[in-house]
Amino acid sequence: MSAEELARIRADFAVLDQQVNGHPLVYLDSGATSQKPRQVLDVEREYYERHNSAVHRGAHTLAALATEAFEDARATVARFVGARENEIVWTSNATEALNLLAYSFSNASLGRGGEASARFRLTEGDEIVVTEQEHHANLIPWQELAARTGATLRFIPVDDTGALALDDLESIITERAKIVAFTHVSNVLGSINPVDVLVARSRAVGAYVVLDACQSVPHMAIDFAALDVDFAAFSGHKMLAPTGIGVLYGRSELLDAMPPFLTGGSMITTVTMEKADYLPAPQRFEAGTQRVSQAIALAAAADYLSAIGMDRIESHEAALGARLAQGLAAIEGVRLLGPAAGTERVGIASFDIGGIHSHDVGQFLDDRGIAVRVGHHCAQPLHRRLGITSSTRASAYVYSTEAEVDVFLAGVADTITFFGPRS
Ligand code: PLP
């Protein structure tokens, strides 16, 4: 990406053009949430100023316009991830998408689909497989599903670098596995997991594959059909869209057989005092008044990213990730987590400075206008396995620059100087 193009992109993000604590803002916390360009904010404002209405309900013109925009947004987001329109279920965020899915495996009584929804019933003896890298959003819903159903939760461990240890895959993903849920890209390490290997093993034993795509969909070209996963989840706010919108992707034949999670208005065909019949997917999973402006804004964000080109965004961020990793690895006293500098990673780099708490690192950097994430990044088991309780994470996006990475690296070096030599 040329300097001119990057400058043009940055001009779309008003928030980036400000001083924080007397320094130009260096925003390296996009893995937590991204900033929003004016093109996305304008779409949301225009919706409220001109078309605001409840979708799928009213017979009036505004309701029809809102419904059309809402469903067009679904089509745009579906194209963005290689899905069909009825395979995109709107949720509040990825966390809700994963909970919706996990609940569906213990809601067979709501399915009214007989044989079909029985596929979504877990019992004792069944196994759910996750990995030790998971964000809590792709761990706790499965722990709770196991507790509700009597199924057993198993996990693929990581090695000392945090990479998935795949040697014993056949003994971990066995014929008993019903669900294999894993993250595409680690939100802590920035490593990319081998989806094909995990899908192949899951297919061999007939398990459903669930992909946590929170850290991949915003940053690289993704085609869920080509990846051959059954379900996937991601959040709009990490890809230039507002908060309050996320997606559960599911293969259409699975979603049509899957029991609903929330029940109520907008997801039914007929209701009597005794029972209700449900609409097909995706409406079956979208009970209640919907998040219209957020869905339209998510489609605008997908259009914005597509106009730049996901492949170009991916290589821009990979270059920044390499610069982050190499720079951190070169600072004495810094332990870079995840893939070694010089090997494949996205624009995420986390590190530990023994003896300096990540909160102190974050505070020191913030005094210079540098925004990073500190703590366990919702991945306590991974941190425990790596022998630390917390880390500091820098995460870049389409608008991040090499100059910002260099300011951050200088800040980290100065943090160590400030707090004194490490033992
Ligand atoms: N999974 C991963 C890998 C994430 O990075 C995140 C957010 O940090 C989530 C799940 C949860 O996303 P949300 O908080 O938007 O639901």
Automatic annotation (TrEMBL):
Q: What is its EC number?
A: 2.8.1.7
At the top of the EC hierarchy, this enzyme's class is transferase
Q: Which prosthetic group or cofactor does it need? A: pyridoxal 5'-phosphate
Q: Which residues form a coiled coil?
A: none
**Which of UniProt's keywords are assigned here?**
Pyridoxal phosphate, Transferase
GO MF terms held by the record: cysteine desulfurase activity; pyridoxal phosphate binding
Show where the Aminotransferase class V domain sits.
26-408
Q: Which Gene3D superfamilies match?
A: Aspartate Aminotransferase, domain 1, Type I PLP-dependent aspartate aminotransferase-like (Major domain)
Q: Which Pfam families match?
A: Aminotran_5
Q: Which reaction does it catalyse?
A: (sulfur carrier)-H + L-cysteine = (sulfur carrier)-SH + L-alanine
Q: Does the keyword Magnesium apply?
A: no
Question: Which InterPro entries does this entry report, sorted A to Z?
Answer: Aminotrans_V_dom, Aminotrans_V_PyrdxlP_BS, Cys_dSase_SufS, PyrdxlP-dep_Trfase, PyrdxlP-dep_Trfase_major, PyrdxlP-dep_Trfase_small
Give the GO biological process terms: cysteine metabolic process
Main function:
Catalyzes the removal of elemental sulfur and selenium atoms from L-cysteine, L-cystine, L-selenocysteine, and L-selenocystine to produce L-alanine.
Q: Provide the family line.
A: Belongs to the class-V pyridoxal-phosphate-dependent aminotransferase family. Csd subfamily.
- Protein name as catalogued: Cysteine desulfurase
- This chain's source organism reads Homoserinimonas hongtaonis
Organism lineage string: Bacteria, Bacillati, Actinomycetota, Actinomycetes, Micrococcales
